[in-house]
Amino acid sequence: xxxxxxxxxxxxxxxxxxPEMADDIIESxxxxxxxxxxxxxTYDHREMLQLVTALSEKSGTPVPDLVRxxxxxxxxxxxxxxxxxxxxxxxSLDFLQLIENYIHVEVRKLYPDAELPTxxxxxxxxxxxxxIYHSKRPxxxxxHGLIEGCAAHFGDTxxxxxxxxxxxxxxxxRFLLTRxx
Length: 181
Ligand code: HEM
Hints:
Residues 2-161 form the Heme NO-binding domain. By secondary structure, the protein is of the alpha+beta class. The chain is built from 7 helices and 4 strands.
C-alpha cells in the first residue's frame, strides 16, 4: 500500500482523535516500517490493519467504523490532490463508474506499484449503480467509506446496500447505490 494512504491515515488520527493517539498506536503496533511513512514509499497493507486495530482498542470504536470514516475522509483528500480526475463530472454515480477504466488506470501510471482493487459496474436504472469490488486485500470498508465521501463531495444522497460475495480468495462485495432524487 502506498505511503500516501498511511500518511493520510496518521493525519486523520491526529485530527479526529489527537496527536498523542497517533504516536500511541504507532508505538504499540510494532510495525516492520517503524511507522515512518513517506508518500512515495510502499508498505505492507497489513500495517494499516495493525494501526486500525490498535486505534480500535484504544478508542473503543469498532474497526469497520474506523476504516469507513477514514475512507470518507480520504476521498476529500484524493479529490483535492487530483482535481484533474474530477473535471467535467457532476455526479457521484458518474464518477464511480470511472474508477476502474479511468481513475485507477491513471493512478497506475503515476504509481506503477500501486495495489489496486478492481471494480465491475452496471446501471440497472438512471439513479442506480451496481459496483462490485474485488481485491486481494480485505478493504471493503475503505471502499464503502470512499463511496460515502464521493457522495458527500458531489452533494448526492446515496443509499448504499452492501452484500459480501462468497469467494475463494480475497474479498468481493456488491454495492448497490441508489441516488435519492
Ligand atoms: C480521485 C479519486 C481516487 C484516486 C486518486 C484513487 C487513488 C488510489 C490510490 C493511490 C490507492 C492506493 C494504492 C496503493 O496503496 O498501492 C487506491 C486504493 C484504493 N482505492 Fe482508489 N482512488 C480514488 C477513488 C476511489 C474510490 C471512489 C473508491 C471506491 C469506490 C476507491 C477504492 C479504492 C480502494 C478500496 C483501495 C484500496 C486497495 C484495495 O482495496 O485493494 N478509490 N486508490
